[in-house]
Protein 1
Amino acid sequence: MAEEGIVKIQYLVSLCAVLAVGAALTAAPVTVLGKATEKTPGSPRGLQEQGKGTSYAPVDPQEDIASVIDRMKTAKPEVMKRQMDLLKERYDLANRPAKDATMSRGKPIQEGIRVALPKGMTWEKLQAMSPEEIRDKNALPGGFFPLPHPNHPEGGMVFPQFHIEEIQKQEGRDLTRFDLDYDLPAHLLPEFPPPLYLTTRPDLGDVSQGKLVTIDNYYEFFNGILNPKQLEGLRLLVTTFPQQQFNQTEDRRTVRPSRGVTCFECHANGHTNASTHLAGDVRPQELRHRIDTPTLRGLNIQRLFGSQRALKTVEDFTEFEQRGAYFDGDHVIGTKKGANILERGSQVHFMAEFQELLDFPPAPKLGIDGKLDAAKATASEKRGQDLFFGKAKCAGCHQTPYYTDNSMHNLRVERFYKPRMINGRMASADGPIKTFPLRGIKDSPPYLHDGRLLTLEDAVEFFNLVLGTQLAAEEKQDLVAFLRVL
């Protein structure tokens, strides 16, 4: 009997402890992807270390869609004003095209340094300072800090207005979000629609005929050019599938239930329209990187994929996008919203086979080794090439003929500033980023993984500072001239 009494007492003590913990959790606020919310009574959430929140998005929101739309539409003007104020503070957003440089289909390239310097600072003064001096004096230009999403606490896919209008015209499908708009001006983005080149048919030039490839016209354009597997792969790349913000649920971000998005919604014509999103593999929300959609051109020569470059084949990446990236890296919410599980042996293979046919644009001044043909290049371009492979240290990562080393490098830009919150984005360490190919780089503004650099001139200033190469003003101009011909 004594032993039985002890067991009962131990049980009662344990039960009281469990009830006390449960009561505390019921009353405590929780953090959902970095955003503090009140905990729903009876919810199992909340058992995380203080400040880390939960890795999961709420699966069963209690607010009806009409209320969500009304609340977020009301907040939208202030959300967008905050973002546009930040951009105007950081950059010169004017439409100032170069007179003698265009993208592959003729859109003028925007020229000049657009990143604003702190008051009283010059680029010469800045590059003479050490990272520690720049950090301690808060002298780093705002445009060199990580760029937040248009609404970083909310996140999700956002498309430029020109793409939204073309999809409405062709398919009657609306990619407008009721809670926010795309932020960067159209003249600073890639040409639209971009040309589409195939490694298998270089004789055809732009196979898209200057139009946006969609489900309405892909067969007309590509039947007789692609084999049946490739044609089916392209069909899947322009077929809509549910995505986190574009679906039928009450936590979508479209007024009407949406059929979803396509792979070519961001990678327009296998290139990019600079649509933006947040990296799905980082938590909490404020540490997630804004993603500037990279081009798919030259995918066949690349060996690392995904925002953390953990995927080693195009097939892996294609499957991961549908299963995870479309749903902010949360397969749980993807199950609810209709994740499309591709069949690896056929669908994934077909999609990957087409993507690996996407070619870089023509570069008539380059020889077969990827370097300048001396007979065709200007004196400035030749000097720029010498700098690229010498003093500027570019070739340490960007190696010929495609100007990538298929690796990752940590630039440690955080050496230059103290961590801070910027419009919901915690500016701290970015970590390793992929060495993107520079072939055709003039067609792919803005630059860096999050699009914080608007022009090639901005990119040259950024890397001159980060790498400590001490380039003179004339040398920077020559380097830009070389980059434009790649």
Protein 2
Amino acid sequence: MAQVTPDSPPATEPLLKVRGLEKHFGAVQALYAVDLDLPAGYVTALCGDNGAGKSVLTKCISGVYQPDHGQVFWEGMPVHVRSTRDASRLGIETVYQDLALCDNLDIVQNMFLGRERLRRAFLDEDDMEREAAKTLASLRVTTVRSIRQPVASLSGGQRQSVAVAKAVMWNSKLVIMDEPTAALGVNQTRQVLDLVKRLRDRGLAVMVISHNLNDVFEVADRIAVLHLGRMVTQDKASAFDRQSLVEYMTTGSLSRTARRDAPAETS
């Protein structure tokens, strides 16, 4: 696989492109003509204050909501994602903040929930165990004691790792992660951020929604900022510093002072 560096521009068409996306809820307009590029092999951080439209945009991409206007392109082709099942068929998986894991089931059962494998009308437990173990090993998730332990017994970082492994096991190409380090301790946050980097290194497109600027600047190759439903900027992460990113998030623009002190563009 060709190596890319965070500052190098994507060499090909973005895996997913959003153009002119708009979404209304009655008289309230949540998104205004949003454009977004998500290239494969890059981590794109989607930032914005509360109410900026991050969740609405994410749910339009993942098939939960249907946009009122605009177009989504997948691998250069226009697509209509009418449901989460449509998104999964394309290779789009979303890990929401609540993780959607069942505490009373073990790791294997959670990873195959709704997609159980059968053999002669019975659950093929051995095959599911092998596949779950293979996926966790490929992501270097090594902190769980057993893949048969209940999810209720896992730490926050381990639960996040299982949710991500569940997402990538089904030939996904784009993984969207909503606040993946929220409420995690230092060690658990490190596990999750390392996992995000491994997804990128496997060539997946990753979109991370986060308020934690430390996490954003550690893992993001690209940053996109929403403000009051509008995409106000998207660029490589090195084009931002903390001050400029906060200003975009809170005001939707960049002051002359911040612009003058902004990092120099690199070719």
